[in-house]
Fold this sequence. Notes:
By secondary structure, the chain is α+β, with helices and mostly antiparallel strands. Helix 3 crosses helix 13.
Amino acid sequence: xxxxxxTNRLILRDLHGGDEAPSSIFxxxxxxxxxxxxxxxxxxxxxxxxxxxxxxxxxxxxxISDEDIIHCRLVGVSLKLTAVKTRYxxxxxxxxxxxxxxxxxxxxxxMFTLLQxxxxxxxxxxxxxxxxxxxxxxxxxxxxxxxxxxxxxYKTVWRKKEYEDYEQARERVERHYEQWLRQMQAVPxxxxxxxxxxxxxxxxxxxxxxxxxxxxxxYMSKNWMFNIWSWDNCFxxxxxxxxxxxxxxxxxxxxxxxxxxxxxxADFINDKFLSFNCCKPPIHAWAFARMRExxxxxxxxxxxxxxxxxxxxxTNYWLDHRRSVASRLPVYNHGNDSGWDNASIFxxxxxxxxxxxxxxxxRQLDIxxxxxxxxxxxxxxxAWTDKADELYGLLMERLYRGGRxxxxxxxxxxxIAHQDSLILYMPLIIGYRLPSEVTAALVNGLAExxxxxxxxxxxxxxxxxxxxxxxxxxPIWAPVTYLxxxxxxxxxxxxxxxxxxxxxxxxxxxxxxxENFDPFSGQGLVDPAFTWTSSVFLMLARxxxxxxxxxHEKIFR
Length: 557
């Protein structure tokens, strides 16, 4: 359920089909004596109560009680559901006090089952579908007797079942959420609101296996970004790895299950679609290495071997299919490939040789070498190291100029003039390979040109291209923040890393768990509730209490 931004209507939504599919399926209205009634909302993590504004004892209450079931209880009021329908959507009687709704546009069906009360259905037929659909659920007789009904979603056929009563369903969901919340890292008291919000967002965005989703998946959001992307899910997997390793590994397994024969991971996946039009930066070996540090469960040889084989194929994709000649570095074919969609290094066109991509690949190659040695594949270990050395040489030869890293516009083999994007500082992640003076210059540049009140701007605030709400042209992003904090820690810049971590944790008290943030005011921007933002907060909260051990040399060299 959501409040529609433009109309302020209360909407029942369905997320099948991903973020390109319309999600609004019903408009909800509170009714009293046949008329629409003014209402207020009382919302908890587990239920929504729509309260009659002039009589607080009268309300409608809804709870998502199972993976595909909504329980609804009405006390003293009625609830009208008006379908937001397309041409072929249709409602038909199914059984006593049951109606089946076929949503052709969503390729699902809904069963409305009235357990107590009575319904008024208005669904005039128009040749190939209902002209409109309106269901009003009412209490029986004396309104105080209440009304209870269930809405159930399914793909093909409805299976008869016994429904528990509303209060039992609500209490069960509340216990499930409380169990999830208890697993989340304890935080200092001032950050408890952020902890609870992050816990709720991550809990509520887990969807069950269906269609292309071969396991439980944590969507990025249930507002607009209801897919999983192949780097977003890495941060969610790292967060989950502490207390729910099976669910953590599932976030990687979903992409491995659909890995193309070329080795590329899908850009995004939902229940209906997977897209290979773009991809995402190769951070997956790093994410898995961090998961292993957090939980020894991931050190099982079978898991390591399976991850190694998939990561090897994914890495070879970049080496074999993303560079035209061996004397050049792999390229991004679109800003979206980098995850930094509109960053200034992409303003001249594509493809682009970018230092962050080279750095991610070098680190991935180094980790693969370590994994190969662990699996007693010594020849492969040496081959990965040789490839890493080769890419490192090309990085320094082609993209290091005048004491700084640059990007190249590949078709003209020229350096891109825009040099104020934070993405150009990402080689800090391979500080273990860089000369110490190069690492120091990167760190100084971060502090002098990018550090703002709440963290690192994605475009320097000195840049003419900086935009207050510019997506990757200024706003702070959680994943990038975490990548830099991790790199700073592993290069010995612990004070700077802790300062950025504190700033980000403070930021969530101002802008909640938004997709990105204004670097100076802290205002949350774009989508207000994002899971990778939540996961980064929870990881930083954990690390502020229990700092990560220095495993850097063991993993990467």
